[in-house]
Amino acid sequence: MSWEDRLRPAAYVAPDGTRQAFIFEDVSEQLPRKTAAFDSPDADGTYVQDNGVSSRRYPLRCIFSGPDYDLQATAFMDLLAQTGNGTLEHPAYGPKLVVPVGTPTRRDNLRSGANEASVEVEFWETTGLVYPSVELDAAAQIENAVQAYNRAAAEAFTEGLDTSDPLAGNTLRGAITDTVDRTSGALSDAARATDEVFTRFRDIERSIIANLDDTGGQALTLGSQISLFVQEPARAAASIRQRLRDYRALLDTVAGSVPEPGYGSEAQNVFETDRLNAAGAVTGSVLSTLDAEFATRSDAQAAALNVLEQFEDLQAWQDAGYEALGLRDTGGAYSELLNAVALAAGYLVELSFSLRQERALVLQTPRALVELCAELYGNVDDNLDFFITSNSFTGSEILEIPRGRRVVYYV
After folding, report:
1. Which of 22, 111, 189, 346 could pair covalently with 131 via S-S, beta carbons 3.0-4.6 A apart?
2. What is the pLDDT of residues 73-100, one digit of tens each?
3. Cβ(333)–Cβ(275) under 8 Å?
């Protein structure tokens, strides 16, 4: 039996069980590996941390041909819009449980290839819903998870400090001051969006500074206050994109370099303070998702991916820091943080299935904007502004959208 004999018919079975076959061209399979590279300043070579593999991905160009090609392509796009897991009957790699991701894009080749349309789509293999199902009051569950993390994080912060050396105590005060300044610089703009939030943000900041004279006796309080200080702007009315962007920037600033080994208790205290600051940024992103309004499925899924990537980057940086300083990771607050992140990701994934999914088409002829909006959405009055914004149409395109322009819309 040759490789040609092992090829199978290509088809996609939607979540509702509808099966549609398609023609295919060259195929490929992607296997993303979850790795992190760490370079030591005093040694040659790179340590690569192997965290396993992500889901396999199958980009395809699905072709429909014949006198009813347009009906086939339309039906296929409708199948891709369904919520849930489908089955890809891959011609080369066999059946896979998948979810179509990204923006499936349809192209009708009216001039160069009449009676033919193609849909470019990427399928990701899935294990099903791997995050906790958030039932009843999702906000309350996630809030409780973050509060449980805050308690555990303050205790881990206190246990991780070395206050026996007076010089290390001075270093700790400096590290906390740096944390306050760094957080204030990164999150003040977001906090200002709501007066009450900005007032609490500044009140917590002043309280932290007031407790710096007794870092040893007030370590538990300081640990709790630092977490609350970092998380407070998440409750402001700033856009979800701004909040996630600002928390991502704060995490990147804190975790931008691995601690230098060989500085004993001073480096240990700085690392523990930075660790609390960085983890606070992750929980700030978690809390930011609670009252956020997402217009599309891709927006909610992008937010979930953002939170998960922040958590993974935090863990990789922490592991490198413990190794560099020769410290033992006791896992303090890890399970509580993981639970909060998993609940938020599960909430966003479930929420995304109730939101509109992005589609795209490439115009074969120039089109009037209002006419095209009416054709895609049905209702112009409620969707025209969103249609213009989501495509970033220029002034000339508002008059007439040119041929070849890629246009996205949501269903």
Report:
1. 346
2. 999 999 998 887 888 999 998 888 889 9
3. no
The one-letter amino acid code at 408 reads V
With beta carbons less than 8 A apart as the criterion, state whether 87 and 97 touch. Answer: yes
CATH classification of the domain holding 107: 2.40.30.200
242, part of any domain: yes
CA distance linking residue 214 with residue 96, whole number of Å: 59
The residue written with tokens 């740096």 in the block is: 178
- Provide the 10 A C-beta neighbour count for residue 264: 15
Domain for residue 358, yes or no? no
| Tokens linked to 230 | 């970092």
Of the ranges 162-171, 245-254, 313-322, the best mean pLDDT one: 245-254
Mean pLDDT of the chain: 86
pLDDT at 196: 94
Per-residue pLDDT tens digits for 207-246: 999 888 776 667 888 899 999 999 999 999 999 999 999 9
Would you call 47 helix, strand, or coil by DSSP?
Answer: strand
Structural domain span for residue 286? 138-352
309 inside domain: yes
| pTM of the shown model | 0.65
Question: Do residues 108 and 241 both lie within one domain?
Answer: no
- Among the candidates 125, 155, 187, a domain finishes at 125
pLDDT 10s digits, 330-383:
777 888 999 999 999 988 988 888 888 888 999 999 999 999 999 998 888 888
Segment holding 360, helix H or strand E: strand 358-362
Q: Is residue 357 part of a domain?
A: no
Which of residues 99, 125, 151 is at a domain's end?
A: 125
Closest CA to 231 of 143, 294, 313, 172: 143
Same domain, 37 and 91: yes
CB-neighbour burial class of residue 70 (10 A; exposed 0-12, middle 13-18, buried 19+): middle
* 100 shares a domain with 19: yes
